[in-house]
Design a protein that fits this description.
CATH class of the largest domain: Alpha Beta
Order of helices and strands: EHHEEEEEHHEHEEHEEEEEHHE
CATH superfamily of the largest domain: Ribonuclease Z/Hydroxyacylglutathione hydrolase-like
Number of helices: 8
CATH topology of the largest domain: Metallo-beta-lactamase, Chain A
Number of strands: 15
Radius of gyration: 19 Å
Shape: globular
Distance between the termini: 16 Å
Mean pLDDT: 81
Helix content: 10-25%
Largest sheet: 7 strands, mixed
């Protein structure tokens, strides 16, 4: 079953939402209440924040045409983003894009995506699984992409496609109003081209690449002709929908914190933390191990502060019992 984060409370961090200060006291994990109680001297918070940015060489991409503004919490620094949702999240569904066996372990992992619906009728789709050729002939596709050295597809059928998963929810591709790429590895980017006219939110570090990462330097896909909204730091997409920039597993890895009416906060780690044991394993094999460790710690800290339900990116233990489409988290 999904787990709720439990880590020590006393940390300082500057990446992401950019907090530079103490964790909320018990009973103040909800950020809105935290803002209401805030008596801090914001000038000193801002100074401390800027000092840590300089000292830690934090990955912030300041664009000359982006208006800089100080956010409301703990002197955080945030740039106004180009896109926001009209509504706030009301329900979330886990999409089942199939099963894959990783040779290391070995371990069997689920390939997941997410559909998030807002009270304004918007539908946000996060990730689209493997390319369609894996449904047609997984063995041939594996050989073509040289994926066999890493693992093998166990199950990817027509049911494990974005079309079929959305249909389970009573939706179609036409209902999707925004796509988000958590990153551009092969098991997340497969049908990115399949939603004409739908804008894509993606980390700038990934969109700046000549092609999507895909697999092991192969980069077999082209970027679709779409409107892209590049993420250069954490942002609030809507009240209760936060996009967290967590480079480590991949250069532009994203994770998500979503607040639902009944469930409360849900942390979607994506591959920033593929499974709980990856924390103890030190994120071995990541694109940048120190960054992966840093962001893994801050995600679990945030989950603990908000008592969030944690859904990992590829957890062998969690996946079999995880609620999936057509069922919703509300």
């Amino acid at each position: 079953m999904p787990t709720r984060g439990r880590v020590p409370r006393t940390v300082f961090y500057i990446q992401g939402l950019g907090r530079a200060g103490k964790s909320p006291k018990p009973g103040e994990a909800d950020s809105e209440r935290g803002r209401q109680r805030e008596p801090h001297n914001r000038l000193w918070c801002c100074v401390g924040c800027l000092k840590q940015i300089i000292e830690q060489s934090v990955y912030l991409d300041f664009q000359p045409d982006a208006p800089l503004h100080l956010g409301p919490e703990y002197g955080e620094i945030r740039m106004m983003d180009q896109i926001t949702l009209k509504g706030k999240p009301i329900r979330l569904a886990v999409l089942d894009y199939g099963l894959f066996e990783v040779h290391s372990g070995p371990r069997t992992i689920g390939i997941c995506g997410f559909a998030i619906q807002t009270d304004a009728g918007e539908v946000v789709l996060i990730d689209t699984g493997f390319p369609a050729k894996y449904v047609t002939d997984a063995e041939a596709a594996t050989a073509e992409d040289l994926l066999g050295s890493f693992g093998r597809v166990l199950t990817i059928t027509p049911v494990n496609t974005p079309d079929a998963q959305l249909a389970k929810l009573g939706m179609s591709k036409r209902d999707v109003t925004l796509m988000i790429q958590s990153h551009t590895h092969i098991d997340h980017v497969g049908d990115m081209n399949g939603f004409p006219g739908v804008p894509i939110l993606i980390a700038k570090a990934e969109r700046d690449l000549p092609r999507p990462l895909y697999w092991s330097g192969k980069q077999a896909m082209e970027w679709p002709d779409r409107a892209f909204y590049p993420v250069t730091q954490d942002l609030i997409l809507a009240p209760g929908f936060e996009v967290l920039l967590c480079p480590g597993h991949a250069p532009g890895q994203l994770a998500f914190m979503v607040k639902l009416p009944d469930t409360g906060w849900v942390l979607l780690t994506s591959d920033a933390i593929s499974r709980a044991s990856e924390i103890d394993e030190g994120f071995a094999g990541s694109w940048d191990v120190p960054l992966a460790i840093r962001h893994g710690a801050r995600l679990m800290q945030l989950a603990q502060e908000r008592d969030a339900l944690v859904i990992f990116g590829h957890s062998p233990q969690q996946w079999p019992t995880l609620r999936k489409a057509p069922d919703w988290f509300t």
